[in-house]
């Protein structure tokens, strides 16, 4: 099997923009106090303020690190090589090649490439959630493999990796607020490495399967 693409995920590197902006509007009044024989009074003036702080959300999987959005779609690859019992033995290419095989189903060793990707989330919008969506199924000709043969784990539990669904959109996970450089838990700055792995012992039809997966970050 050859590269699962997309990362094989299209890791949707950048999601989010929006610069924080602060605007203030003030409204004033006026008052006077009487003089002469009128009772002495103390004037009071009201001043109204309106402050708006916009939300921002930055999310990347792969390259395109803060503060410069951009980058390219990352690619994760898995190559599966069979071994046949009883020894085990790696089959040799060619015709009429003798090999000692007891007939039991082969096992497969998995070699991964590009499967460790940096991830970053920054936001002042409150609770950040992340979920995965299968954009294109893993396909080789007429054959398909469900995307959940691929799993992903995070190096930091504060920025967890969501479960990869077989198809469609999976369930979301919450990113822990705060992080190095934040003033409080209402602002989020989190980084981690996500590691992708092929986890299936089910026999598949030989071929080069490719597909695409996207990750999305969202705030309320």
Task: Give the arrangement of secondary structure elements.
Elements: E1 22-28, E2 47-53, E3 57-61, E4 77-83, E5 107-113, E6 116-123, E7 128-140, E8 143-145, E9 150-154, E10 173-175, E11 188-198, E12 210-218
Write a structural description:
The chain has 220 residues and is mostly beta strands. It has two domains: 3-27 and 50-73 and 114-220, no CATH class; 77-113, no CATH class. Helices cover 0% and strands 39% of the residues. It is rod-shaped. It starts with 21 loop residues before the first strand and ends with a strand. Residues 1-26 have low confidence and may be disordered.
Tell me the strand percentage band: 35-45%
Determine the structural class based on helices, strands and strand pairing.
mainly beta
| Distance N to C terminus | 40 Å
Count of DSSP strands: 12
Global outline: rod-shaped
Tally of domains: 2
> Strand arrangement, largest sheet?
3-6-11-9
Mean pLDDT, all residues:
84
Number of helices: 0
> Helix fraction?
under 10%
Keywords: Signal
Signal peptide: 1-28
Features:
four-stranded antiparallel beta sheet; rod-shaped; 2 domains; single chain; mainly beta; 220 residues
What can be said about this structure in brief?
The strands form four sheets. The protein has a four-stranded antiparallel sheet with strand order 3-6-11-9, with no helix packed on it. The chain is 0% helix and 39% strand. It has no helices and twelve strands.
